[in-house]
Amino acid sequence: xxxxxxxxxxxxxxxxxxxxxxxxxxxxxxxxxxxxxxxxxxxxxxxxxxxxxxxxxxxxxxxxxxxxxxxxxxxxxxxxxxxxxxxxxxxxxxxxxxxxxxxxxxxxxxxxxxxxxxxxxxxxxxxxxxxxxxxxxx
Length: 138
Description:
The protein is of the alpha/beta class. It contains seven helices and five strands, in the order E-H-H-E-H-H-E-H-H-E-H-E.
């Protein structure tokens, strides 16, 4: 069975901006290209990247970055299935995390995947208390 990863917005931003940890994301993307793993990202997490670039650099840059992301070997999840909905709701209520993070983690649990992230300040407590597998890029 192939490894399954769910990509957090912060990890993809690190890759796009060539920040610390970009090499870890790049390695995973190459593995996905070669069929060694599957990478998913929820559309809500993609929205975090899009609106951040739109706000900081404008519509044209946001559209260009979005198009480049959509060419990567990442499967974009566009729905919130019932099991993810319920899991995300439980996580958001319990840990007071953002809606985007709760969907990310709900997808991770339901798909039995690993989160690729750098958000220790958001997720360290969840790593201690939930059966979520984190793949830290830094």
